[in-house]
Amino acid sequence: MRRSALFSWLQAAPLALVLAVFLLVPMAMLVIVSFFDYDSYSLIPDFVLTNYRESFSSAVTWRTFGKTLWFAGLTWVITFGIGFWVAYYLAFVVRGDMPRMVLFVLCTVPFWTSNLIRMIAWVPFLGRNGLMNSALIGMGAINKPLEFLLFSDFAVVLAFVHLYTLFMVVPVFNTMLRIDRRLLEAARDAGAGFWQTLWCVILPLTKPGIGIGSIFVVVLVMGDFATVRLMSGGQSASVGLMISNQIGLMQYPAAAANAVGLLAMVLLLMAAILRAIDIRREL
Amino acid sequence: MSKTTLTRRGALSLAGAAIGSGAITGFPTLWAQNIKGVTLRQVGTGVSGLNAIAEQVKKDLGFTLQLTVSDTEAVAQRAATQARSFDVADIEYFSIKKVYPTGVMQPIETRRIKLADKIVPIFSTGKLLPTGTPGQGTAPHTVGYVDGKTSTKFASAPTGWMTLMPTIYNADTLGIRPDLTGRPIRNWRDLMDPAFKGKAAILNIPGIGIMDAAMVMESMGNLKYGDKGNMTKEEIDKTIAFLIDAKRSGQFRAFWKTFDESVNLMASGEVVIQSMWSPAVAAVRSRGIACTYQPLEEGYRAWGSGLGLAKHLTGLQLDAAYEYLNWYISGWAGAFLNRQGYYSAVLDTARQHMSENEWGYWMEGKAATADILAPDGKVMEKVGAVRDGGSFNDRMGKVVCWNSVMTEDRYMVQKWNEFIAA
Predict the structure, then answer these.
(1) Same domain for B326 and B383?
(2) What residue in A sits closest to B422 (Cα-Cα)?
(3) What is this structure's pTM?
């Protein structure tokens, strides 16, 4: 018995080691550096609270955190709205495994190019003299180009939705496939209509998938900086962008302090999601 | 899986790791009897990190110049924090103000630079002409020299030890789309004209952007700085507050960080007036779109770059690096850079590599007598064209400030971040 226990420890050791070296140590470094002092070209090992004080006493920081949450919330609502129905269509409407798989692979096609390219592709489409505005003007729907299409929060959320909806579709689709079809028949036999079945049977059983999808989307949006910078033309801010700016200017301790703040916020969000949904059933 | 395969694989991966980690080093470079075996790794920005230069080095000097290109901030960051990852840094003077004191560089011995006394005086006295006044900000001559071989303190006057050997510099101003602005542009304050609401852009590199903002502030009469290049906290507050107001009211379409972004903003018509760099204007024009590098009454904001040596360079590699530095100002590279609208540190040698027409157009402000070609052979300007801003003396002589690192740098950068996040 003791030998087998030792063996289990040994089996778990490599992963534990990898996690320790590549996750825990860097995290610890991050926390340590966030208490360092700095000047324009070097880090000064110390224990000061200035980085936190400077960062969190500024209204701009709070606004930026708020904005990041807002991006995450809005993106979550939209990706969930779209992702759920796409997954529903794939899982329950499409008949046969073959067409289902073909359609599913089709969903992933955009992911064969890089994140950045998918994002940049929007620029000529949405610009002041872009395809969208030219088309609308050509149709006579508007007489002045719509400025809000590009370099705006609208553009940022649009790109997020475009980039991350699939992360919602996949886990939701996956859990939906595992729902026992007999339950749906039973619901129908018991007199439940479409919406009642959806609300009382499918939704509760899909919750783990929704939980995983939500974690993907929320984490990806919260940590993003490239999308926000490119699609808002540098006009909008996110915590990630703020951190990236500070790193670019060699203000590592300030960046670390903000990173710790962001980490705390994301962990709280994760805790909330995990409390609401037991995703372990899925795993 | 059997035991033997495991151990064999283990041994192989261990050996691989040992080689990969560079544990096996320190072989005497016996085979590198001459300079031809040397490789110099250079970090720098896209401005001068050009393959054509590396190819010419290979041809003229025989050794390999390996280029890594990133943006202004990343270059400074890399130089200061990963000193072993490069041999030569192609870096801006305002960045070297931050990087040199970290002790990762070694000074360049002026006596080993053959044409040192031919370098334009901007880099030694700060004055283009003996009667001129140096611009405000981190002017190259203020951070161009250190006291001695091991000193990291900048010298106030030229010494025998240079921090950087100057290579390239220019006078920057606003770029405009004359077809879309609808009126002549004469001053920095035109960037804030309500007529260009939602059609203006400024660059998001604090040390440069703050100077453009200061030029605008002074031009509008909002503020008279004691020294633009070294603002007080109060001046920084006022400048940033002004920028935030302008941003909130929707004056700006975007903030750009890289050369390409600025070209795309202008070429697509998203922006009609913005901070810009000279070759970016040329790039817009080469697409057949009208774009002017507009000289302004208040003068120019200038920048300069040079090559610096990493501290770890010794022996043959150091000799090769000096060969490279000397080659850089010996003519070919200077002409190559001048043809893109920049200026070379030594003018006479560059002139020998340029045609009369090219020299006249780029340096003397004369109308082109034949088509002006880009380095890749494309027609850049037609016969009769005159360079925006005119001659070298007209442009560099009107420099009023340089890209800067201020005493209140940390505060300024924090505030700048607030502006970007606001």
Answers:
(1) no
(2) A60
(3) 0.80
